[in-house]
Amino acid sequence: MDKITPLLLCGGSGTRLWPASRKGFPKQFSPIFGPLSLFQQAVTRLSGPGYGRPLVVTNSDFRFIVVEQLAALQTDPAAILIEPEGRNTAPAILAALLHLAAGDPEALVLVAPSDHVVPDAEAFRATVAAALPAARAGRIVTFGIRPDRAETGYGWLELSTRAVEGEAQPLRRFIEKPDVTRAEAMLAAGNFLWNAGIFLFTAKAALAAFRAHAPGLLPPVTAAVDGAARDLGFLRLAPEPWAQAEDISIDYAVMERADNLDAVPFGAGWSDLGDWDAVWREAPERDAAGNAAAGEVLTLDCSGSLLRSDSAGQVLVGIGLRDMVAVATADAVLIAPRDRAQEVKTVVAGLKARGLKQADTFPRDHRPWGWFETLALSDRFQVKRIVVKPGAALSLQSHVHRAEHWIVVSGTARVTIGAEVRLVTENQSVFIPLGEKHRLENPGRVPMVLIEVQTGAYLGEDDIIRYEDVYARGQGAKG
Hints:
Spore Coat Polysaccharide Biosynthesis Protein SpsA, Chain A, globular
């Protein structure tokens, strides 16, 4: 029996769960519930008997996060495609299909976002299994969520008949996000489902649908795939033709026009975690007063509220809160009524307009070799904590505007300064003059931690010239 190839989309940089999710490290890579990130939960959910290795589409900034989180699951991907820029879901899915169909046109593909929550993975896999006969017969199958409220934040699906759990049924049409009155009517009717953006089909059937309904996407995306370049373990799509592809979703490009669509209802629990109110609803535990808490949190006379502290050592205290959201990170705090949680996107736009870095970036910046965070920043100096993974190495680099002083506090560092290479152990330090070529490596088997003190006229992350880099990142802040 042919195995299903999970096609996981994880290039988005949504901000609806700000400040816990930001452009630099979005929600799909965060452990919103439990120890695994949402991306890791999706990989785990779409694995086991009947499933092949996942095919992942992401962007350059997230490629090493994807590799690290897959490695933590001991999962070897079929491929990781890198989008040169975001062009929405239709080009991303088409690129993956073209790549996959080159080896197996009849391949079964399950397209899924990587930032959804599905508590009952076994029930979801059973629903996918129920859809296999329709997909093998050339149908395009979407999985609709049985609604439990008159939700206005989702698109809906209209079935030709009343929804039957786990049964593929003809899909009449897609419906845009409705107003409350229409949502209530659809909820009562019984033949409407939420659109989850999850699809099952053969590569051959999906490509035929693209040729019939979105032919303009084929030339640029095909050229981007044909011109793709191998980069370490990644496949970088060619940027010039990719930029010519229309920025359009799979629903608008194909699904709303196709006439061979079925829908399978799924009612065992699902959420796209579209805002903090959804996180409250999906919280695995709430106290007797309906409060959901995560991290170091204390509540007094609160009810129906979400309180979350994402910073170690930071205690969040709520007193007398009613149906509120309070989320604290190391550099930002959000407080809002639960019923206004969707306005967070407007807040982030306001932060960007004011030039505040909290809009997009965290104090902790993840890199392929580990991570760093800023402990202190002022005019002409910055103090960072840097953690380097065992066996990892920063690039051979220099800076135009700053000098650096490194103090090792845990582990052992192999340090290159000019032509000199030496080991630096705990409580030892080295100085890197402005303009000197240097490199930091961790030759040990445990993470290496050091404190970096930067001094100079300009301390931005883009003040870097790379000469050698095992991660092939090129120039720029992250490369």
